[in-house]
Amino acid sequence: MGKTLREGKIVFHVKEEFYDGGRVTVDEAVDMIANSTIVNMVGKCCVEKAIAKGYVHPLAVLNIEGVPHAQIVKL
Question: Helix, strand or coil for residue 13?
């Protein structure tokens, strides 16, 4: 949290006011995906767990400075 990641032309701010909605375990966070319409994930543990549960395709993950980022939009 609070970091800025850079890779090529990408500048990605991991802002606390956006990503820090409260502390939960990785399992709890990934379980919330079932009831969410838009999801933004940053970090190896949560992105890998979301892939394992079939929420995110591995090729849809963007790595910025080696940190995985994934987005889910359910229509």
Answer: strand
pLDDT tens, residue by residue, 32-74: 999 999 999 999 999 999 999 999 999 999 999 999 999 999 9
CA distance 71 to 10: 16
Give the DSSP H/E element, type plus range, for residue 46. Answer: helix 44-52
Burial status of residue 45 (CB atoms within 10 A of its CB: 0-12, 13-18, 19 or more): middle
Indicate the class that CATH gives domain 24-75. Answer: alpha beta
Could you tell me which residues come within 8 angstroms of residue 28 by beta carbon, excluding any fewer than 6 positions away?
none
Query: Whole-prediction pTM value?
Result: 0.85
Question: Domain map of the chain by residue range?
Answer: 24-75
